[in-house]
Design brief:
Layout (H helix, E strand, L loop, with lengths): L8 H15 L3 H24 L7 H32 L1 H17 L2
Helix pairs in contact: 1-2, 1-3, 2-3, 3-4
Length: 109
Amino acid sequence: MEKQKLPNATAVLILGILSIVSCCCVGIFGFIFAVIALLLAKKDMKLYSENPEQYTNYSNLKTGRIIAIIGLVLSTLFMLKVGYDISQTGLDNVIEEFNRAYENAKQNQ
């Protein structure tokens, strides 16, 4: 029987990478990408465990899963930090600070 690739291994790898990249900008997107990657990885790991000799790209799946876990942790930490900042300074101050940073960036262009 010819070996096949796991159907979601590449998607898990890409979503894992996206979860790390987007956690630095907006934590919730990194969290969402990581959760989706982990769900797809779980599905493919079950498929692989049923018939391991049939599939070839299990290492991509493992790598994507590890990256997704890292992205999930980073996104969670980022969201906790933002929540802590909001609870300490108030939402109005956070929005004000964001607007000041936006205006500074706009002027520096």
